[in-house]
Amino acid sequence: MTEITDTEKLPEAVERFVLHWGDLGGTWGVNRTVAQIHALLYLTTRPLNAEDIQDQLGVARSNVSNSLKELLTLKLVRRFPIAGDRRDHFVAETDVWQVARHIAAARKAREIDPALATLTDCLAIAAGDHQVTDEQIKRLRDMHEFTATMDRWYTKMSSLPSTTLSRLVSMGDAVVKVLNLGRKAE
Question: Who's near 153: CB < 8 A, 6+ residues apart?
Fold first, then answer.
């Protein structure tokens, strides 16, 4: 497990966030160090170079380098040039809606797109296979339609400006309340 070093001790709240974000990384398909570096850069108010990150998190330089490459690919961090310093420095995206968009895009590419392709293939194969029951085909169609609906929803939501998306998400509570969707069945 990556641990915060004593070299430049982080404030307790920052350290706890970095460690927790690292734990959450696994649920998003990234390793702990990638998520911890993202969290550190997100909360740090100045650009950090790889050595700074290595010192603060106590991880190997190669791990920092590989993690930064992944974060750059995910568009969660970017290089930040500093005059007179030849080293690369990095800053994180700080707009939480953009962070959510980038994480959602990566998960869609890794999970939804392959699932939709596989379900499409399964339906095509099932159509010519007499051993596949009507119920199995129905279930495949249901799962395909659900996945395709989530794919369309993602595409629509990802194109909205952050302010609109924020308002839309905030409206969810009001919609549930108005429609009384949260009540328990009697």
Answer: none
Q: What tokens does 35 get?
A: 């998520």
The residue range of the domain holding 101 is 96-179
CA dist 38 and 34 (Å) reads: 6
Separation between Cα atoms, residue 109 and residue 73, nearest integer Å: 13
How many structural domains comprise the chain? Answer: 2
DSSP, collapsed to helix, strand or coil, labels residue 85 as: strand
59 within some domain:
yes
Is there a single domain that holds both residue 173 and residue 115?
yes
Question: Does residue 1 form part of some domain?
Answer: no
Q: Are residues 135 and 157 in the same domain?
A: yes
pTM over 0.85: no
Sign of the alpha-carbon torsion through 68, 25, 14, 58: negative
Residue bearing tokens 């099932």: 126
pLDDT in tens, 113-151: 999 999 999 999 999 899 999 999 999 999 999 999 999
The tokens for 186 are: 């009697």
Nearest to 146 by CA among 110, 122, 105, 115: 115
**Encoded amino acid at 80, one letter:** F
